[in-house]
Amino acid sequence: MKNVFKILGVFIxxxxxxxxxxxxxxxxxxxxxxxxxxxxxxxxxTDSDNDIxxxxxxxxxxxxxxxxxxNFRFSNGIPDLNGLEFQKQGDNTLxxxxxxxxxxxxxxxxxxxxxxxxxxxxxxxxxxx
Length: 129
What we know:
Radius of gyration: 19 Å
Largest sheet: 8 strands, antiparallel, barrel
Number of strands: 8
């Protein structure tokens, strides 16, 4: 009987570990109340003093309490962008509110595309999850 409980316990432990580790890439930023995800790829930042660019960068995206605003934390010493407001477009895509030719951010479960210019500073990202 002890062996049955041991085997059952191992199966439950493995199932729990698999269940918890397998769901993070399936998160959809458009449909979740809480979202956090890392996108990897080409990122860059330019201002009057800096010109940072890498093909192996990361952007950590989090949805903040308002439900429509997101924060973007960049790797490689690139300044963060916080409090950008989004609206849902289609089933699974978010597009930044008031997007223009110089300000465009699009995010979904698999991709982050960004061209954001403000106050002489420019952030770019072409990343996937």
